[in-house]
Amino acid sequence: MVLESGEVSRDSTQKQVMNRGISVLELLLRTLAAVGTFGSALAMGTTKETRPFSSQFFFKAEYNDLPALTFFVIANSVVCGYLVFSTPLSIYQLIRSAAKISRIILVIFDTVMMALLTAGASAATSIVYLAHQGDGNANWTAICQQLNNFCGRISGSLIGSFVSIVLIMLIIITSTVALSQLHK
């Protein structure tokens, strides 16, 4: 099909509309993932519980007592910061739906952040499992019977983090779909 100057092909317009829709979805997913990682870091980072064991001893639990939970808070905070700071680039893609290089850069960094968040959530999951179940072979007892609030909050923060991982996966998928549309 030969186009005269000033005309726009129908396929080109459809691709722009599709890429704009993908950019809106990506911006929404990025915002939701930022809220999820912020909530997870906040819930874990403010978790603290002390219960009396006897008149002289206390059960005390804080997230920073365990390095895996500290790593979880740091990973969620870094990913949240990245998602917030990458939002202007995502808005730029909404305005300029044909932007290719910025989308490639975001896909690369989104993948790295997903790996960091997955590592943090996985490390924390093992500790949360031990807190709930204990380990008879290592002579570790479950602490969740004594520290219900602590265990409830750290379990809830894991849920938020895993939901954010899924959201970042969807961001990566939508970005690669948009890139494939730009490449055609």
UniProtKB/TrEMBL annotation:
Keywords for this protein: Cell membrane, Membrane, Transmembrane, Transmembrane helix
| Record Pfam families | CASP_dom
The keyword Membrane is annotated on this UniProt entry = yes
- Entry's family note: Belongs to the Casparian strip membrane proteins (CASP) family.
Please state what the protein is called.
CASP-like protein
State the source organism's domain of life: Eukaryota
The record's PANTHER family line, in alphabetical order, gives:
CASP-LIKE PROTEIN, CASP-LIKE PROTEIN 1U1
Q: Where are the transmembrane segments?
A: 27-46, 66-92, 104-131, 158-179
| Casparian strip membrane protein domain residues | 20-167
